[in-house]
């Protein structure tokens, strides 16, 4: 989605402090980067994360958006400092391709009709084995479309809100048709703006590290490890240089510290606070909307939840 930005204060950034993300050294990239792993079927998300951690000799690693062992596809894994924000940075939609098997012969028109019926807001109770409380909750299915029919089996694509259970969606569609259904296979093809074309096989991660460590060749490692900013799926607020260190020290973001911001922010949104060099400073909760922030001369704009940038990167200005 293309999003416009709004300028609150015309500001320039001092080249003496911070740096553009693309100018980071390999050591800096590995200290705060994100690997988009192409998770295979079989191992758990935790196991894949542990393997990537060992392959890249990272001290810490953590994933965002858990995939069940039998589900493959896009699994973002944060390295070292990036683990601080992994649970907050991917709040957007997910896309999956899967196979649903109906337990009786179903006409194509009936399948297309039930897919349409389950597009929009759906109610779900998480499965018994889920890691969250089993309470009725609402989730949005943005699109649900058949790709290919093979008897009772249907290959489909679905785009949905984070936290939607596709296995339960398949079960509920079968119940609605009166014959039952179950999910046979599932692959996540997109998490936020991260698409499977950017995902790396585990062997590619291992090879990239070997090429850098043994041959001094950084090319593949820079392809495998993304800057944390490239993995963000959050609306953004850019800070004046003078406000960066205060936020790094845990202070709230006040209106005078805002240089520009994305349109469409509403109070309560999780947002990314960025430097004017497009470095992630922290992840925060917006206390006002974009339009309100543009009019504010004082007051709290956002409250930091997780600080990403190291203290001392920008000068102390208070």
TrEMBL record:
An example Gene Ontology molecular-function term: tRNA pseudouridine(55) synthase activity
Keyword flag Ribonucleoprotein: yes
GO cellular component, one term: ribonucleoprotein complex
Domain PUA: 235-309
Pfam families: DKCLD, PUA, TruB_C_2, TruB_N
Its biological purpose: Could be responsible for synthesis of pseudouridine from uracil-55 in the psi GC loop of transfer RNAs.
Protein name per Swiss-Prot or TrEMBL: Probable tRNA pseudouridine synthase B
Gene behind this protein: truB
């Amino acid at each position: 989605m293309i999003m416009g930005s709004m300028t609150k204060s015309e500001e320039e950034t001092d080249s003496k402090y911070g740096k553009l993300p693309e100018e980071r050294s390999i050591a800096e990239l590995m200290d705060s980067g994100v690997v988009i792993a192409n998770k295979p079927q079989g191992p758990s998300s935790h196991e894949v994360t542990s393997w990537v951690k060992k392959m890249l000799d990272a001290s810490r690693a953590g994933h965002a958006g858990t995939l069940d062992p039998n589900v493959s596809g896009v699994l973002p894994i944060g390295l070292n400092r990036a683990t601080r924000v992994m649970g907050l940075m991917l709040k957007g939609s997910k896309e999956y391709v899967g196979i649903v098997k109906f337990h009786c012969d179903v006409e194509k028109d009936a399948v297309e009709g039930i897919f349409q019926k389950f597009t929009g807001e759906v109610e779900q109770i998480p499965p018994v084995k889920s890691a969250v409380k089993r309470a009725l909750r609402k989730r949005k299915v943005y699109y649900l479309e058949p790709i290919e029919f093979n008897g009772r089996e249907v290959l489909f694509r679905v785009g949905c809100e984070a936290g939607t259970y596709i296995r339960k969606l398949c079960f509920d569609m079968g119940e609605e048709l009166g014959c039952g259904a179950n999910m046979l296979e599932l692959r996540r093809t997109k998490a936020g703006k991260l698409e499977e074309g950017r995902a790396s096989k585990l062997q590619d991660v291992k090879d990239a590290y070997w090429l850098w460590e043994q041959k001094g060749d950084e090319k593949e490692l820079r392809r495998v490890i993304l800057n944390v900013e490239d993995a963000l799926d959050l609306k953004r607020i850019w800070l004046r240089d003078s406000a960066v260190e205060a936020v790094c020290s845990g202070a709230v973001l006040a209106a005078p510290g805002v240089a520009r911001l994305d349109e469409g922010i509403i109070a309560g949104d999780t947002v990314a606070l960025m430097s004017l060099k497009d470095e992630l400073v922290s992840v925060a909760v917006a206390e006002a909307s974009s339009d309100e922030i543009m009019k504010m001369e004082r007051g709290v704009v956002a409250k930091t939840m997780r600080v990403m940038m190291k203290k001392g990167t920008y000068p102390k200005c208070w």
